[in-house]
């Protein structure tokens, strides 16, 4: 016989007269707790009065004991020392009343069960199975709450404390909506609560079904923008107060039931659009294994970046004079294109806010218009919005951004600064103004992720304009360092372009031997952000050194407590040889681990053909990247005489410094049969080189993370890298004795070292085919996806959330 008392959510009170374990200390019952001990044993047994009384009339809204009218009379009498029997009529009335409540309760449970069944059947037609079900017991009559408790405390729950089978089983499809971590957390909170064991299955918990169904609307609390400790999970929730501790959880579980829209996007706040982007056409979807969800950590996240693939990703020559080096960013666009999707897959509601450089077909004008003042001038801003792959994209439109996609960081220093000021001012208010799927993000439970100096003003504005004034109190900001070499430097007078209170100037002032006393946007952002992330562990360490910190190492050391290195992932949909859209024409082919040898050979021949190189079996060395000091192109230049003496082909794709571009052209002219120097920015060619080359060269002088080596390994292309920053983190050196490792590394930025590493690599390619294949396969078999990184980002965002 199932007992309602089995639900761990329902405080247990053993009601056999001899074993009543109510404890006045834990329940605050009041001074005369054992009043019912005076009741005749007969009355208790025949009417189960003890249970009814306790559970139906004696537990107050705060879980305290409250007395029903008849009991009060009894109590009074007993106080007076009168031990007369309880009035039969009063007892009967109480019993009748309780039966009615019980009937209503059952009815309600039935409704819950029906809803679950409906959802399960919908899910079973739309969701792929294949998940490991072992951790989700398939008990057929368990209330969800009970199940989770069972997982945790199975021994305890062997005692038959299960709920009536009117409730459908907790199916695996429901897993995303009832995150184990959340449930376990709630449970552990409850473990400390007093327990009352209801042995009688006829005893209803103290519930007002009308209220309960009304309070099912607490569904909104799951996505409540308030921090979770202020949300309905709190022990002090109104539900608990009104209905007794034991009834809150069923409502919440009901609230977390998946809905149709949730099927298509984990983000439960998005309405109809969910169905539109269900990813049915995505060939990867079937294979994609759902990562664990964020559970109780779910929050609203807005990633703010000056570029976002595929809409904007820098590649054109930058003529900026705001940075120490006149170079481009490119990897930032890739990260802004991929990390948000991974965060959304974990269940967060995620938006990317980026400038609207061109007319993006997917983005629709929201009609929202706002005006922002930049350096004394008003600018009107429009917001365009799209929803793709579970992510909201909000493009901030103003005439300053138009047609800048080829020169995102181009123009004179003041122009760039004005663009970034306007962008950050507009971005920080996006959660207030821009409805996505009809609902604004709001500023509660909100985390901004700003990226590099371009958006380092955002944490500063968040503080100066809002948090200092009691606004956006629950909003947090994390600043990601993709490249510390670009800092947004200028003369101190630039401070007056950023429209901040005078006393904020100190945040921006920095002195170093390179710039003297100057204005430094990155410095202010690093100091103000709640958390700092950089894109690898190695780079996190380098940033703290005077060589790697580029003048900001002092600030970074001071803020070390909030710095964390998280290695980038890659977009395994964009960069996957099996589905790469750039490998479907011109003789290229898609390939996988199984078809690696034939597929790659075909891509190699296609690449040679496309670039006019001799088509033969010779190692192809590739290089893709910005042509600048960072990427070590000069080391390649020094090694060229040695390289052309080898039987190899070298293909370089890049754009950047004019002198280095010229050098590329020159190499090609001089070594027509061996070298191709492609000056320009071509995503298609980058993909094709990655697929067709055997070796990818990355002699970067510094490399915060590096994406190309990750792409290369995913395509079975073996990297040869300078062991710095993220390159050291991600390319374990080949060990021929153990047949382990992923590529070759060299430990200082010297052409001799490069040649040595590359020489060993070529030797292995030619002489040790098995080892070579092992290297390729190990590279391809890694999980390079963003899922792990997204989980780490989530930890950072959660840490920021609870930081005051
Ligand atoms: N000519 C060209 N044509 C086509 N595509 C081209 C190209 N030149 C570069 N790319 C592409 O641009 C991206 C550059 O990625 P990197 O990691 O090298 O980034 P970058 O140094 O710009 O970014 C910074 O941010 C990223 C992201 O955090 C860090 O990985 C990195 O270390 C840091 O310097 C890659 O997708 C690459 O294929």
Beta-strand residue fraction:
5-15%
Query: What shape does the CA trace take?
Result: globular
Bound molecules: adenosine-5'-diphosphate-glucose
Residue runs with pLDDT of under 50 for 5 or more positions:
1-86, 123-281, 315-329
CATH topology of the domain at 300-565: Rossmann fold
Please, how many helices? 31
Rg, alpha carbons? 32 Å
Spatial strand sequence of the major β-sheet: 3-4-5-2-1-6-7-11-12
What is the percent of helical residues?
25-40%
How many runs of DSSP E, i.e. beta strands? 18
Main location: plastid
Pathway: Glycan biosynthesis; starch biosynthesis
Protein name: starch synthase
Keywords: Amyloplast, Chloroplast, Glycosyltransferase, Plastid, Starch biosynthesis, Transferase, Transit peptide
What can you see in these coordinates?
There is one protein chain. The protein is of the alpha/beta class and 804 residues long. Among the domains are: 300-565, Glycogen Phosphorylase B (Rossmann fold); 581-782, Rossmann fold. Helices cover 38% and strands 13% of the residues. It has 31 helices and 18 strands. Strands 3-4-5-2-1-6-7-11-12 form a nine-stranded mixed sheet, with helices on both faces. A six-stranded parallel sheet has the order 15-14-13-16-17-18, with helices on both faces. Strands 8-10-9 form a three-stranded antiparallel sheet. Helix 18 (457-466) packs across helix 20 (521-528). It is globular and about 105 Å long. The model is unreliable at 1-86, 123-281 and 315-329 (pLDDT under 50). Adenosine-5'-diphosphate-glucose is lined by residues 315, 329-332, 334-335, 482-483, 535, 568, 624-626, 653-655, 681-683, 686, 703-708, 726.
